[in-house]
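RETRY 2/3 - previous attempt timed out on the joint model. Re-submitting the same 491-residue input unchanged.
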Amino acid sequence: MNAILLSLIQAVAVLLGITLLAAGLTFAERRLLGFWQDRLGPNRVGWQGTLQIVADMIKIFFKQDWTPPFADKIIFTAAPIIVLTTVVLAFAVIPLGPLAGIMPNLNIGLLFFLGMTSLSVYGVILAGWSSNSKFALLGGMRAAAQTISYEVFMGLAVVGVVMLTGSFNLETIVAAQTRVWFVIPQFFGFLPFLIAGIAEAHRLPFDLPEGENELGAGFHTEYSSMKFGMFFIAEYASIVLISSITVVLYFGGWHGPWLPPAVWFALKIGAFIAFFILLRAALPRPRYDQLMSYGWKLMLPLTIANLAITGALMLGGIE
Amino acid sequence: MFITSAIRTMWLTFLHLFHKTETVQYPEQKPYLAPRYRGRIVLTRDPDGEERCVSCYLCAAVCPCDCISLQRTAAPGQWTPEHFRINFSRCIFCGFCEEACPTSAIQLIPDFEMSEISRQSLVYEKEHLLIAGTGKVPDYNFYRIAGVATAGKPKGAGLNESPPVDPRGLLP
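RETRY 2/3 succeeded.
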């Protein structure tokens, strides 16, 4: 009974933490983007603009929650729930520190993560379809094509790590990196994984499903108020998710000298989040056919070659 | 190769973290406005302290958004406007009125802080528009230069004005 209560408390704490972190990220992103564009960003509400999150939240809660009369009501409502739920569920398997996290010892942890990220695309497609609007449908279709093609080599890229550790258990994978981080032997697995992760999170430069300047707002064009807010939170939560899974798989999880594990984990995730924001500040969005050709003609062969070389080296007894 | 250029772009963007920001923190920190900035419209006076406006209606005619309304005084010989009204909620601050004005009466000045709660209070009457000084053209006095005869100045006595020619005279 006590154990159940403890894990329940932990789950709620992680859930709240993720949501608050995602909300806080909206502020952090605007501020960082500002600095990278020689601006200041929001700095009026509260100390250095920190209460901007509260202001935005109040605003988004008090907006009219409008369901278009031409939309498919049930699916329209379900889509943002699916997106947010799958992203938050995927956090269950992330080891946040030694013996911390909701279920880090799950023996199919990595598969669970991949499954949840694949499921979240359903939310996006359903949102695009049920909105019954051209822009939203185009955004949903783009999301489908992009996610499916980038998921192929995302799955293949992590196989290198799985081969080296012989386990899908994320805690085992972290434990295997005490000596050397997997980013060094698996650099050409890490690169496609990170790029696929950015594409999964629909972040710039791979935000074609949203594509503000050509599709309005893409799949969430028709959404307002908190339904839009859920997409928004889910996007930032998936940034945190992709950052933390990259850290777990390739950057040694919570391992690091001197500082306590939780601090190391937070630092590494923070660095990746900042990198995601830097990508947004620096890079333009590729054309749709370019996106597809990067995926299928560059990243997929690279991943397969990495996989083959890793396998050959393991057979040869190196590593 | 696009990968190297992408990495270079990201590095250069990252370095902007250490650059000085361009933002002017407005209410505390005022931006620099050039002397010829096109802001609030004023009516100026000539060096003698008289109103410059001669009610020629050119400003009202050139105004693209019809925000200027004025009326010449009915009394003969009086050219100052009876009323002069600018609706700033319509004004687009294009400065055409200033260019059209033959007497440099209407001028745009470097001031944009004129927000109001109600639209009605953006309608400025003549007493709100008139200023005490000469504005951007300090020495200009229309009646000293113009060929018209006014009080204390017969025809031909203006600055740079030659005495009137007798058109019926036969002398060369």
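Chain A touches chain B at residues 34-40, 278-279, 281-283 (CB under 8 Å). Closing ticket.
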